[in-house]
Specification:
By secondary structure, the chain is α+β, with helices and mostly antiparallel strands. Helices cover 25% and strands 31% of the residues.
Length: 213
């Protein structure tokens, strides 16, 4: 994302993309690290110049990744920034405002065949799920095209699509940052997740939302 931010500061246009074969300092939300195997994943940062920045941008990018891999797998979306497959993480998204633009960092597990012990059962890849090597360029092209298409949609349309395409948005038993448990009850008008708890409706502005049984 640093290289993309430098390009943005120099006036690089909307849709400029920076791609890495491997990340050495990959980050996720709340400072979490992102496992990066050489030539296994797709790591890209897209410069977005949009009129507004709210949670809907991250949701739109999740929809874009879901659509981009739809010819290979049927992925799910976990609010706000995870693309899931068989309850394991396939891709993650991080959007930051830098240098007068939005920098959208997207990491997708494409051709990994194994993960560290602490990620077994947590992460997966397109290759693991399909049993075949996936051309990286084809995934890159589709993700970029769909990212520009979905971030161009209106907020109400993005929220509606996310609600429709995510099994996590409604009726999912979850725990939020270990603080409380409840059942997801859809998105509010700003794109934040609502959770019905024993004491009422909670709005999740940030934090980790994990499915529970």
């Amino acid at each position: 994302m640093r290289d993309a931010a430098e390009l943005a500061a120099k006036g690089a246009p909307h849709g400029t993309v920076v791609v890495a074969a491997r990340q050495t300092h990959g980050i996720g939300r709340h400072g979490h690290t992102w496992h990066s195997q050489p030539d296994g994943g797709l790591y890209m940062s897209i410069i977005l110049r949009l009129p507004a920045h709210g949670p809907e941008v991250t949701l739109a990018l999740g929809l874009a990744v879901q659509e981009a891999v739809s010819n290979l797998v049927s992925a799910d979306l976990r609010w706000p920034n995870d693309v899931m497959l068989n309850h394991r993480k396939l891709a993650g998204i991080l959007v930051q405002a830098q240098a007068g633009a939005l920098i959208a960092g997207i990491g997708i597990n494409v051709n990994q065949i194994a993960f560290p012990d602490d990620l077994i059962g947590v992460a997966t890849s397109l290759r693991i799920e399909t049993g075949r090597d996936i051309p990286m360029d084809s995934v890159l092209d589709r993700v970029l095209a769909e990212s520009l298409r979905y971030t161009g949609k209106t907020k109400p349309e993005i929220l509606r699509l996310f609600d429709e395409r995510s099994t996590y948005a409604r009726g999912k038993a979850v725990e939020v940052d270990g603080r409380y448990k409840g059942v997801t009850a859809g998105l509010d008008p700003n794109g934040f997740l609502t959770v019905r708890t024993a004491t009422g409706i909670e709005t999740v502005l940030a934090g980790g939302v994990r499915e529970i049984s």
